[in-house]
Design a protein that fits this description.
The chain is of the alpha/beta class. It has a domain of 211 residues: Glycerol-3-phosphate (1)-acyltransferase. It contains ten helices and eleven strands. The strands form three sheets. A seven-stranded mixed beta sheet has the order 3-11-8-4-7-5-6, sandwiched between helices. A two-stranded antiparallel sheet has the order 1-2. β1 and β2 form a beta hairpin. The termini are far apart. About 3% of the residues have low confidence.
């Protein structure tokens, strides 16, 4: 029989106050882990048409990322009220960090800190899904190819979709160009938003630039390996595997006011000037937010 929870009244409030439930003990965690293993072994879990596996995400992948989010990067979020609690929306963010850790931290932020615990369905480059293990885990966590067809299907189904328009140009830029946005491509994300009538939520991320300061690029080796770049940082490859440990920079993630698109109508997606103007508006909004966040952060590591 579950333990009764005492309802109290705050001294300055007429509403009942329910104290938070105690953290589960090791017995509960063990039972939950065994139940998870049973579901995985018996196949009693579901995935959607894109390969998204909520059971694996909630019980394995997100718990692996939370220590980075909470303890290592100490991520603080702002403006979560600007992200709709229901329905489709497109979150557009700056990209940086040599390795795209920023996408994973934004996913944790929206799931754990947003009142509606929203899931972010990321759009990734082909290279991500061509990589063994990484590609499969990305699918299971809800990512899909960065193409308008997949983006529009997800948005139409009421999903929260995340896109990083700078792509490899953003995460692979030199440290001296940190927090300077690269080109946003041809505005494919804007056309997807216009066709589905969902709001665009600009997102600025500060902190990722410092986790792997990119001071060089082994271009010849990168071409041989089929990679867009092969980073040289102060710790990699000098320290070998230890060089893959990210520096514990202080992170701030801010979600700006949404830019509505429904009033334009689906046909507006064929207007190149409108697409260009909206793309530029989103880019300038994120760049301005980055400057504001940098002023708020006391130092790189605090």
């Amino acid at each position: 029989m579950p333990e009764a929870r005492v309802i109290q009244l705050r001294p300055d409030d007429d509403e009942p106050y329910v104290p938070p439930a105690p953290a589960p003990g090791w017995e509960d965690r063990l039972a939950g882990g065994l139940e998870f293993l049973r579901r995985r072994l018996t196949g009693e879990y579901e995935t959607d048409e894109f390969g998204f596996d909520p059971d694996l995400t909630d019980h394995l992948l997100l718990p692996i990322l939370r220590p980075l989010f909470q303890k290592w990067f100490r991520v603080e979020t702002q403006g979560l009220e600007n992200v709709p609690s229901t329905g489709g929306a497109l979150v557009v963010a700056n990209h940086s960090g040599t390795i795209p850790v920023d996408a994973m931290m934004t996913t944790v932020a929206l799931h754990d800190d947003h009142p509606a615990r929203r899931r972010l369905r990321l759009l990734g480059a082909d290279l991500v899904f061509d990589m063994p293990v990484i590609g499969s885990l990305s699918r299971k966590m809800g990512s899909t190819l960065a193409c308008n067809e997949d983006a529009e299907r997800l948005l139409t189904e009421g999903e929260l979709v995340g896109v990083f328009p700078e792509g490899f140009k953003g995460i692979g830029k030199p440290f001296r160009e940190r927090y300077t946005l690269q080109r946003f491509g041809r505005g494919g994300f804007v056309t997807a938003a216009l066709r589905t009538g969902v709001p665009i939520v600009p997102c600025a991320i500060v902190g990722a630039e410092e986790i792997y300061p990119l001071i060089g690029n082994a271009k010849t080796a990168a071409r041989l390996l089929g990679l867009p770049y092969l980073p040289i940082t102060p710790t990699f490859p000098l320290l070998g595997p230890l060089g893959l440990v990210p520096l514990p920079s202080k992170w701030l993630i801010a979600f700006g006011e949404p830019i509505e698109t429904a009033s334009y109508g689906p046909g507006a997606a064929e207007d190149p000037m409108l697409v260009f103007n909206l793309t530029d508006q989103v880019r300038e909004t994120i760049q301005h937010s980055l400057y504001q966040l940098l002023l708020q952060r006391r130092s790189v590591f605090s």
